[in-house]
Amino acid sequence: MILLGSTGSIGVNTLKMAKKFSLHVEALTAGRSVELLNAQIEEFHPKYVCIADKNLKKLVNHESVFCGSEGILELIQECKSDLVVNALVGFAGLAPSVLTQKLGKRLALANKESLVVAGELLETSEIIPIDSEHFGLKYLLGNHPVESMTITASGGAFRDTPLEMLSKMSSAQALKHPNWSMGRKITIDSATMTNKIFELLEAKWLYGCEKLDAIIETKSIIHAFVNFVDGSTTAHIANADMILPISFALKGEIDEQILPHVDLLKIGNLEFKEIKQERYPMWEIREDILKNPQLGVVLNAANEVSVARFLNNEINILDVAKINKKAYKKFGSVNPKNLDDIFQIDKEVRNFLKGDL
């Protein structure tokens, strides 16, 4: 397989399962974590590697090193592997997703931005989702007619923070996720609930369901519900660990235990909460963007800008939503028809937000 984003949390877990299943890793790509990449090279002996920053190339212990976003695309073209695991973060994951499908390779997708900004341009029926919520939905779907789908949210780091304190919370505090260990950006997206809007868009593209919603389940044990026309509902329950959807993505079917079963007696009780707009201002646009999924490119670009500012301590957590909604309103009439349009809109949104709030 080809693993894009090998040094992130999804990448590290993917390599863990690749080792368990004795899968050959033909190529690895990483951001700037050279030390971890070198350790992965020593253990998995990939034929090709890629590093984001060309200035770090000399530090990579490999004789065939590609560099930057173009390097990732060249690497995918050079490789013979049929499976690409895209665990890149952000808009940078889009072009590799498109190329993977263009080359007829299988796409195991953890890069949610690919679907958020360009779901209409991807063969969504061919995508293998690496996400606990979408894995859960896929696991539950059978032959019964579906009425609606619901995914769950943890609520993020500020789920129980007094509302009047939200604007005073630091980025360091936002990174303390209550249930999961994830990358920095997705952890912030969890705190603002933008991540859940992204996941609803993904579900729309992956499964074609028009009635989608999300609720908070505080223990992250239930990941998804499918509500059937007959009035019944099924839930996907599993311990919070990404190695389960990763394992299915790598092998297709699993006939061995990957995780310990959930001990319901030990859990004792489950708590569900409504996602409220006063705590998560981004939730205001949920219904509109599900009706207008072409605006995903606008929200993603704005969100990458605003989250970077928050992580750099330039703005507070509530300003993230203000910036995102400002761009969403400004570019509310865009309707990209192809990949060039998407890249152009992405650029225009980022340029629009270069100034002050």
Q: How does this structure look, described?
A:
The protein is an alpha/beta fold. It folds into two domains: 2-130, NAD(P)-binding Rossmann-like Domain (Rossmann fold, 3-Layer(aba) Sandwich), CATH 3.40.50.720; 133-291, no CATH class. Helix content is 42%, strand content 15%. It has 15 helices and twelve strands. The chain has helices at residues 9-20, 34-44, 68-78, 94-102, 112-118, 132-140, 171-174, 184-192, 194-207, 243-251, 264-267, 286-291, 296-311, 317-330, 339-352, and strands at 2-4, 27-30, 48-51, 65-67, 83-86, 106-109, 127-129, 146-153, 212-217, 222-228, 233-237, 272-273. It has a seven-stranded parallel beta sheet with strand order 4-3-2-1-5-6-7, with helices on both faces. Strands 11-10-8-9-12 form a five-stranded mixed beta sheet, covered by helices on one side. The longest helix has 16 residues, at 296-311. The mean pLDDT is 94.
